[in-house]
Amino acid sequence: MPPALNPDPLAEFAREFLGRVVRGTVTKAAPFGVFVRVGEGVEGLVHHDTLAGSAVPRTGDEMAVEVGDVNLQRRRVVLRPAP
């Protein structure tokens, strides 16, 4: 099936996981936070402000995160460390 006819993985992820806690793998650390892969083709940002008081995860670490927001137009997923 051509890629344009496949369902949008981000839209499917938003429908199923918005507001829920999921586990993911840290794929990249940046000065402003860490990127976490939370699904097939879906990666989100945990901003460094939300990591205050906890150890900053490193690339390859697994962590539990809460899906705070999914912006389909900007293709962005906002994550927070799970409570």
What does this structure look like?
Helix content is 11%, strand content 47%. With 83 residues, the protein is mainly beta. The radius of gyration is 13 Å and the shape is globular. The chain is built from one helix and five strands. The longest helix has 9 residues, at 9-17. Strands 1-2-3-5-4 form a five-stranded mixed barrel. A hairpin with a 2-residue loop joins strand 1 (21-30) and strand 2.
The shape is globular
Sketch the topology as an H/E string, one letter per element. Answer: HEEEEE
Averaged pLDDT, please? 91
Largest sheet: 5 strands, mixed, barrel
Question: Structural class, from secondary structure content?
Answer: mainly beta
Q: Portion of residues in helices?
A: 10-25%
Please compute the radius of gyration using only Cα atoms: 13 Å
Number of helices: 1
Strand content: over 45%
Determine the N-to-C terminus distance. 40 Å
The order of strands across the largest sheet is: 1-2-3-5-4
Number of strands: 5
- Low-confidence blocks of residues: none
Feature tags:
5-stranded mixed β-barrel; mainly beta
List the helices and strands and how they pair.
Elements: H1 9-17, E1 21-30, E2 33-39, E3 42-47, E4 62-71, E5 76-81
Parallel strand pairs: 3-5
Antiparallel strand pairs: 1-2, 1-4, 2-3, 4-5
Briefly, what is this?
This protein is mainly β.
